Amino acid sequence: MDSLLSMTSLPLDKKIEHFVKTFCEFFLHFKGEVYLSWSGGKDSDVACDIIDKIWSGEFKHYLPLIIWEAVVSYRKPRRAFCNTGLEFPEIVDRVKARSKSHNDVDILKPMMGFTKVIKEIGVAVGSKHIAMQLRRLKGYLANPKPSNAASARLYMTGIKANGEKSNGFGLSKKWLRLLDAPFPVSDKCCNIFKKEPFHRHEKKTGKKAVLFTTTEESGSRKMAYLQTGCNSYEQGKERCRPYSIFTEADTWQYADQYGMRFAEVYYDRTVMVVQLDGTLKEETLPAEKRTGCTFCMFGLHLEPKGINNRIQRLAISHPKYYDIIINKCGLGFILGWIGLPYKPIRKATQQTLFQ
User: Fold this and answer.
1) pLDDT tens, residue by residue, 60-116
2) Mode of pairing for the β-strands spanning 239-240 and 231-232
3) How many helices (H) and strands (E) does the chain have?
4) In this predicted model, what pLDDT tens digit does every residue of 210-256 receive, in sequence order?
5) Is-contact 346 316, C-beta < 8 A?
6) Are 104 and 79 in contact (CB under 8 A)?
7) What does the CA dihedral 137, 195, 127, 149 come to, rounded to 10 degrees?
8) Cα–Cα distance between 48 and 87 in angstroms, integer?
9) pLDDT-based confidence at 355, cuts 50/70/90?
10) What letters, b where the CB count within 10 A reaches 16 and e where it falls short, cover 227-258?
11) Other C-beta atoms within 10 Å of 68: how many?
12) Are 334 and 303 in contact (CB under 8 A)?
């Protein structure tokens, strides 16, 4: 943990150097047979820009000349983007523009759509850990066995088999109520929308993944870094994560230093928004800190009360998109049943969205 803290505390130039060396080591190990997992978001934009600068020669000073020459003797790796249908339209437009201008993006799609997933697999509620417990517990209660009795007790009470209290398990009454919900709850959506399409891409191409996640995003990503570092060469789990030690501040510092501009959703802006009836309305929209799946409910219950959460903001910034997911796909019913706010807070709302 101390080593991670020291790495995340490095100045930006040292982090770029670490990125370049980490990526190139992985890249040469697999003789260039890698792909870049590009989300179109700000972190992966910076990461891909660093890789572009390796090939342009701007960052070759971070490597011994013989290593740099070996790297650029191979073709620069292609980007892969998974269009789940749940990204901000601005992100998708950015990806399509890059694909058209550079012809270096493979656009993937999941096997299942959002409506089918929330109806047949389950909705993402609470956190991955909470949703996993709910999914498993519902199965244990539906099919009780001696082999799952201890786990069912653990999830319901937080008491382990030896009678000790567990800090990491045990659902509160708030979440146990969802056992009786008229819809399933599951932690599997990320596997369906994100992981499976990339696994399919890897199987088809034989290429290994270069990912652009950071350790500050989640505990699981921090744990993955502590176990393997930025590069993992374990068979079947080959991964390069050269951006792991970067922080939010680093991303913005890099953008400022190298003149990058991210997708417009990352900035406060005033734009003309198309309304449900086709008319235009000027809206002042706040910057989004993170993008990803716009209608993901993980962590929604933790957002500040009294101001619009990320789903409520979509009613104002993307009313047509919001209307499809909330009303036509049925997410509004689910959010209402759970008790999570989804109607925007403002003096004049579009009442037609909720009729």
Assistant:
1) 999 999 999 999 999 999 999 999 999 999 999 999 999 999 999 999 999 999 999
2) antiparallel
3) 16, 10
4) 999 887 766 666 666 666 678 999 998 899 999 999 999 999 999 99
5) yes
6) yes
7) 20
8) 19
9) very low
10) eeebbbeeeeebbbbbbbbbbeebbebbbeee
11) 19
12) no
The angle at the Cα of 290, spanning 112 to 27, to the nearest 5 degrees, equals: 75
With the CA atoms of 110, 231, 203 and 207 taken in that order, what torsion angle do they form, in degrees rounded to the nearest 10? 110
Q: pLDDT tens digit string along 271-280?
A: 999 999 999 9
Q: pLDDT, tens digit, for every residue of 13-24?
A: 999 999 999 999
pLDDT in tens, 292-314: 889 989 999 999 988 999 999 99
**Element (DSSP H or E) covering residue 126:** strand 125-126
Distance CA 243, CA 215 (A): 9
In DSSP terms, 185 is beta-bridged to 123
Torsion angle defined by CA atoms of residues 274, 276, 281 and 286, in that order, rounded to the nearest 10 degrees: -70
Band of pLDDT at residue 161, cut at 50, 70 and 90? confident
DSSP 3-state of 313? helix
Q: Which domains are delineated in the chain?
A: 2-113+188-258 (3.40.50.620), 125-180 (no CATH), 264-341 (no CATH)
Bridge partners of residue 209, in order along the sequence: 35, 239
Q: How many residues does the chain have?
A: 355
| Distance between CA atoms of residues 106 and 37, nearest Å | 10
Mean pLDDT of the chain: 91
**Residue appearing with tokens 């000349």:** 65
Distance of alpha carbon 252 from alpha carbon 215, whole angstroms: 17
The single-letter DSSP state of residue 177 is: G
Beta bridge partners of 239: 209, 232
Axis crossing angle, helix 42-56 with helix 248-258, rounded to the nearest 10 = 50
Contact 319, 350 (CB under 8 A): yes
Q: How many CB atoms lie within 10 A of CB 302?
A: 9
